[in-house]
Every structure is written in C-alpha cells, then in structure tokens.
Amino acid sequence: MKPNSFGAGRIVLLLKDGAPPNEPSSWRPIKLLNVDYKTVATVLNNKLKLLLPCIISPYQSCAVPARSMFAHLTDTRDVFEYGAEKKLSGAFVSLDQVKAFDRVKHRYTLEVLREFGFPGDFVRLVELLYTNLSCNVVVNGSATAGFSYTRGMRQDCPLGPTFFIMCIEPLLTRLASDERIRGFPLTGEDEIKVLAYADDVCHFVRDAGSFREFRSAFNRYAEVSGAALNEGKSKALLFGAFPKEAIGNIQTVSTVNVLGIFFPCEGVAETTWQKAVERVPLVTARSRRLDLTLREKALAVKTGICAFANYARRVAVMPAKTLSQLNKMISSFLWDDKPAPVKRNLQQLPEGEGGLGLPHVATISRLLALKTVRFLHQASDFYGKGLLLYWSSTNTKYLYADRQPGPLA
Questions:
Q1: Counting Cβ atoms within 10 Å, is residue 184 exposed (0-12), middle (13-18) or buried (19+)?
Q2: What's residue 401's pLDDT?
Q3: Which of 145, 150, 325, 385 is deepest in the core (most CB within 10 A)?
Q4: What is the pLDDT of residue 394?
Q5: Among candidates 114, 123, 146, which has minimal Cα distance to 133?
Q6: What is the pLDDT of residue 90?
Q7: Can you give the residue ranges of the Reverse transcriptase domain (predicted)?
C-alpha cells in the first residue's frame, strides 16, 4: 500500500532568460517530487546501477558506472579520422527525438524490466512507483487541479536516466546485431553502427539500404515505446559519394554537433574552440568591475577563465591559434590591457617562487587529452579501443603536431 500523495508531483514554471513571458514556450517546467518517493527511488537506483555494466551494451555511455561521455566523443572523432584516411563512403546520422524522456510509455518500461529478467517482486515495486501518478502546476503561487499521466521518465526521479537507457537498449542492440545494416569499419574485422549517450543516438551507415533498415528498426521501436523522431532537428554528415537523397528529409550538414563538440568529416571543427573561449570576454568584463588585486585575478584565471575550454580539451588538443587567443585574453585581463611587465613563464611560477601560479595552458591541454586516452585505455568495455590503439601507437608522430588525428586530434 502507498499513500495517495506518494506519486504526486508539482510543476514550477521558470521563465527562460530573455524570453517573452506571454509565450508558453518561454517557460521551463521544473517537476518536484516528494521526499519519500525519491528516497525509495534512490535505494532502488543504487542497487540497479550495480547491474548496468552487465546488461547495457558498450554502445551506451550514459548512467553506466565506469563509462564516460568522452568514450562517445572519442569514438566519433576516431571513426571520422579513420574514415577520412581510408576515403570511405557513408553517412553519420545524429538523431533528435521529440521529448525523448517524456514519451516513454510506463507499460513499455515494465515490460523491458521483465525481459531483462528482473524478479517479479522488483518489477511490482517499480510498478508502485510508476502507477497512479499525478501532477499539478503552480501558477502565480497557486496550484492547479491535479492530472494523471501514463508515460514519461519523471523529472527529478533518480531512476529516470537508468530506466531510459534500459528502455532504449533494445533499439541499440537491434541496430548493432542486424547483419543487413553495414556500419563504419574499425581496425580488423569489426565495425561500428551505433553510439548513444542517453537519447543522443548516432548511427553510422555505409549505404542507402543500411539506412532504410535503420529507419525500419527505429519505427518498430517507436511503435512500442512511444518514441518519435524529429526529422527537422536530426542531422546527417555525409562521407565520400554517399547519396544525399537516401536519407530523406534529414538535413545534411558540413559540421555536426555531438554532445557540444563540433565535428566535420575529419578532426574537430574550429567552431568547438570558438564556443569554448567566447564566454571569456564576458567573465573578464564582470571581473574588471570588482577591482580585483593581481593575485585575485590570477585565481579567477585558474578557476574560471581556463576552465571554459576544459571539456573540449578532454577530446582534442587546443590548436595553436586558440591557444594564442586565450593567452592574449588572460594577459589583457591581468594587466588591464597593458603590456605584461613580467614574462609569461615567470607568471607561471608558484607563488612561493615569486610567480602567480598561472596554468601553462598548452601543457594542461595535452594532459587533459591524455587523461581521456588513459581512462579509455583502462576501460574494460570501451568499444573503440582498437582505433584508440591504432592512433596512439602506429601514429605516434601526431602526438606533438599542431593538428593531430586520433586520440589527440
């Protein structure tokens, strides 16, 4: 038995920055759940996470312990580099699903748990969490009447990401195992057909027939799960002589955005680095109004300004052009747009030796990229390890080049 309030939720609306308040789309719904519900869900999720590495395929890198989104990004980058080197034809399709988390049917979620072989008692407990759900909306400080719903992963529910990757797992394994679908080749006889980070699903196809089979498989998945493909926001990056008409209404692009990193057909796009440093002038402008001391400015550089590019630097080494741009921004901020009276290498000395302790941006860039390589090399289920070894062993000459393919692209 559970109290009626156990499955109740409340939606609070937050206005998006700079959006007109009279437009419904300008408001961001934030769902709040009861503490007792979240406590039970947290206990179940902590138990469930222990099993995820055993039941979730290596194509999915979200919410699984000891996996990382950098596996998804590294695989994508290395496959593109390998395809460019071998002059392959094919298509990389980045799917966008309509409200992916909100559309999953609760009945489908329970069936997936049963198919995975979870005991009946566990499934019945989950069923208690996902039946008789209700929600109301807070408008102008007052709550509306409650309404019920039978689909969607509950926002703020600890089980949400875990259940979603389990629900999309049948699609991933179906695509990967279908012999009628030809993926991009890896080193040896392996090939890669699909990668996913939660609902961010990327598909690699070699020919038009493979793409048709992929669409057919997705349509079957959508029919049973409630998912829907947003063709208007899905993107395709074409390689070689792949026919554009084969992908239908999906837009073709020259650069595709994967989890915030922009990829052309080879390497990492310059747009990635532009995005990484474009916020620096805003931060320095705000900091100038605070009348900071020199050491306080140095602390702002270490904790804020240099941190903006850290995410991109886990996937690629910062190019010399961006490195020079960032160093100029740092110097301008530290010395109030005047020439630096002290050489940069002296500023990078520890404070105990008379320096400011500034980071060596170029060295940190390489260390962050190598950190990703080391993590993925040690991962037991990283799907792209063959390409990782290919780029880092047979092509070591690229490790210290200005623009490198492979692990330090």
A1: buried
A2: 43
A3: 385
A4: 54
A5: 146
A6: 95
A7: 1-263
**What is the model's pLDDT at position 398?**
41
Alpha helices, H only, 130-277: 160-177, 208-225, 270-277
CA distance 209 to 321: 42
Distance from the first to the final alpha carbon of the chain: 56
Residue type at 159 in one-letter notation: L
Core vs surface per residue 326-348: b (16+ CB within 10 A) or e: beebbbebbeeeeeeeeeeeebe
Angle (nearest 5°) at CA 167 between 161 and 168 = 95
Q: How far apart are CA 402 and CA 265, in angstroms?
A: 18
172 token code pair: 């991933």
Q: Which parts of the chain sit beneath pLDDT 70?
A: 1, 189, 393-409
Whether 57 and 176 have beta carbons less than 8 Å apart is answered as yes
Looking at residue 408, the DSSP 8-state letter turns out to be G
Q: Domain residue spans in the chain?
A: 8-267, 271-387
For 170, half-sphere exposure in the C-beta direction (CA atoms, 13 angstrom radius) is 20
| Amino acid, res. 60 | Q
Residues 6+ apart with CB under 8 A from 93: 202, 203, 204, 205, 211, 214, 234, 235, 236, 247, 250
**What per-residue confidence (pLDDT) applies to 385?**
84
What is the structure's pLDDT at 1?
Answer: 65
Torsion-angle region of residue 182: left (phi > 0), alpha (psi -120 to 50) or beta? beta
CA distance 50 to 65: 8
Crossing angle for the helix pair 320-334 and 280-288, to the nearest 10 degrees: 10
| Amino acid at site 190 | D
